[in-house]
């Protein structure tokens, strides 16, 4: 009597729930034209306009002008993408009750939050990459490869405070109001911090209030650019660390209240 034999079952593929959440979150952002097009095209477009078309001659004559513009538009790219990749989507999901659904699923409780932070970091990297390629290929920033690498590392790490800010805004505001609040908090900072043009001395007192200023200072310190450094890098790092802890603490408190 013959015995039927079955082939051994293929081992089940096990994928980390964190990896699944991160992949899905990033795909959702990339497939959203309302987010992807402005976040990824606006920074490099404005960098091309001002650093090459408007101030091209000034950059060629004064290398410090090229370094100033590269740092400013790079900070804009990573911070704007990180903030808007987290705040509006988190607020909308919280309003629709999707976070309650995620808590009921058999997944680690922090997977969705880690996914949003990683998606914000990667969004900042994607927005910054075209600016980095332009600067490296054209020499418009007048920076060496070592300087560009050090400044890039600081820029990518600098997305974390703005991810924390986005999570805080997303936990406090409604889905429809989150983009407006994000703009209200973010836009004054990129102008009043002096990212794009030197401010008059009468306005220097308020630059330290903006996290974009402190990230800009760390970027200059990493690249060894002394001309535009106004505070010690240790102070800038301490301010950004405290800002991250404060925003994260408020966000976690609010999300626990909503649970």
Automatic annotation (TrEMBL):
Identify the residues that the record assigns to the ABC-2 type transporter transmembrane domain, covering every copy.
25-202
Lipid bilayer topology = Multi-pass membrane protein
Q: Which UniProt keywords apply?
A: Membrane, Transmembrane, Transmembrane helix
Q: Where are the transmembrane segments?
A: 35-56, 68-91, 111-136, 148-172, 178-197, 236-255
Q: Does the keyword Metal-binding apply?
A: no
Q: Which InterPro entries match?
A: ABC2_TM, T7SS_ABC-Transporter
The record's subcellular locations are: Membrane
Q: Which domain of life is it from?
A: Bacteria
Q: What is this protein called?
A: ABC transporter permease
